[in-house]
Design a protein that fits this description.
homotetramer; 217 residues; Arc Repressor Mutant, subunit A; 2 domains; 11 helices; 69% helix; DNA-binding; DNA-binding transcription factor activity (chains A, B, C, D)
DNA sequence: GATGAATGAGTATTCATTCAT
DNA sequence: AATGAATGAATACTCATTCAT
């Protein structure tokens, strides 16, 4: 019995259907590592185990492949967590820390986070993609954080700081971590690697402490 | 009368001495904007107002031009301010904020900051340059911040947090600002631009508050 | 009915296998005619009936093409004839004449002899090729001639001349003929062309007569 | 007193007047070594101790420089010796050997002999120069040898061989020696160098013996 | 005359894209 | 659908030639 109740395709068939996915995976790796221009489509095809010609069967051009890679891997990590967030029990400060760690585990630590590096690196060459990314990823993320901060301020948990600026104090370290991971990170000796969870945890706690009202004993 | 009392070089001579600088300027702009691979040497030459051949008179290859651009523009903004730092009057918290703002004015806000974006984007293609950048820019900056944090903790001004992690809470927003400025920034509507000084100021104050010992009334 | 009983390859396949050979042929012609530097790869490709890009599919660089041309066309005309030589019936003098004519027919008169001109012309630019040629062509040829001369002397057929010098009296005219054919030859009016077989025949006879012991009546 | 009775120019002046000569010398060396296309005018100028611009003051183009090099160095070695030849005492055989050795000492052994190699190598690229060379060098040389051979035959000293073919038996080894010296020679270990005078001497003697009538005791 | 900085036409080489099989 | 041979536009780099100083 097949526990998922899904039809099991023949191996051959499945592979065929996965072709675009395998190509996108290979392309993600290479685009992140080398950038758009320095990546050769032949290398992408080779890594996906198909011929150059096959790639063009699925993607009409290198640029289209690039756009597909971005659109495919741009997930909505914070938004996905939005539902769970509703059930979160704890202070706003704890929520903020939890959100940042969630973002790291769901996105920052995954291969998909290479997209952020890619977008940053190629933004001026692909402004539409940059705009797309802002709209689909940055804005929703900011909206979520904004809500948390505004509520915390309204509830007297946080001081009435400039929320739009505080937003960036939350997101900058996350984007920084991702950029670092995909650029300088591979060049650093192991001993000097940044430890993401620990950094996020301490950063969140510093921020929360900085945002909190002074304790009135 | 020549007011500067300096010998006036002939037009040809003066231009000759200026060539490398003009080319490096043009190349910085284009490399930052389009990345290494997508920048054509002819375009660099044209922007510097010379022909393709002239560029190769001063730089033996495109890669050498790239390296020269990096080495030329990698300044040591924090280190430069190290002397003045010694005379700073104020708390460690004020010093930290002052340092971050100085860094922005001396480097982040200038064209040279494009180097940081460039390095991050091309790090995996030019690992030697990435290592060079870490050694010449990141490390000295971190050392400076480390000193300040350690002293503040020793003096009982800051809580005994993990200094290596706190370092990144200081530097991440700065590098983030620079990346943003050279990537997403140009794609954003004016209304949504990040205001660097205000962000840095608030971020510094949040951090300092988060690092400070609780007030003992 | 396929008279050869061989599978008939598709047009594309057949052409593919022929490509390297066609390119080498075209390159031989042009390199011999114009030298290495003055030959454009595009011209080679055009003469082989393919595009510039195709050439680089088979040879990674112009220099590699050049080396392949040399290695491909360096045949061992004298050595090839070594087997037949064993069965030769006649005097050493007749053998010498026969060898020289054989060399001409098997090599000197063919397109491949352009290689000798090429090597001589480009020897200082490609010393490895010159060494290769000496080792693969010159040395074996000299060895063969040396053997014949030494045996003839040992058998009292030839006078005891300096064999190493006599070697060159045999080979110089042959190499001269080849050089001439590919350089001055095409510039000469037909009436002044050197007639290779006649020249070789007379030269061989002069040499043999010069080498022979005086007739003892 | 100046023994030559020529005005002694100032050093500066003399150098100026020698400029073309120094350039031609430098160019000869380089053209012979690398061929026409692979020789850079800048290198020629540098070797002559002047700037690239100065070269073009004296020679309107690289091709003109090449032609000047050829015309300047094409001497008439055999013809020059023609006068002395008239006073030669000895047999035709001795004369032939003497002529060949003279040619070597006056031309083959000198730097100017590089011209022969150059002409052979570049003949198809510069047919006018090849024709010029044939007319100015080859033909007169052949004419001289032809005269000697014809006379020797007429006088019953030599057998009535085909003079036009015998010509080449005289000249081929000489041209071969020159080609070798400037191409394969530099690539050969010292132990395998051809010794020109000894080779010429033995070759001449073989030829003369081959040409001579059988001794009638 | 002499210089050497500047030029730009020319060439090797790369690589996205096409298409016959 | 899949292949990979073929293409040719694009681009880094060279070098003979010019010309202002």
């Amino acid at each position: 019995m097949n526990p998922t109740d899904l039809p099991v395709p023949h191996k051959r068939e499945r592979r065929k259907q996965d072709r675009p996915g395998e190509l996108l995976d290979a392309a993600l790796d290479l685009f992140v590592e080398k950038g758009f221009a320095a990546t050769r489509v032949e290398e992408v095809a080779a890594r996906a185990g198909v011929s150059k010609g096959t790639l063009f069967l699925y993607f009409p051009s290198k640029e289209d492949l690039f756009k597909a890679v971005v659109r495919e891997n741009v997930v909505h990590p914070v938004t996905q967590g939005a539902g769970e967030m509703a059930h979160f029990k704890g202070t706003s400060g704890e929520l903020l820390e939890w959100m940042m760690l969630q973002w790291w585990h769901r996105y920052g630590a995954t291969k998909a986070s290479g997209i952020s590096k890619l977008i940053m690196s190629e933004a001026t060459n692909f402004p539409e993609l940059a705009a797309f990314y802002r709209q689909e990823v940055i804005e929703p993320g900011q909206a979520l954080v904004r809500t948390v901060l505004q509520r915390a301020i309204a509830q007297g948990e946080f001081r009435p700081v400039d929320v739009e600026l505080a937003l960036h104090s939350v997101m900058a370290p996350l984007l920084f971590l991702v950029m670092w991971k995909h650029s300088m990170g591979p060049c650093c000796p192991v001993s000097e690697q940044i430890k993401p969870e620990q950094f996020i945890t301490q950063h969140a706690q510093l921020l929360v402490r900085g945002l909190s009202l002074p304790q009135t004993p």
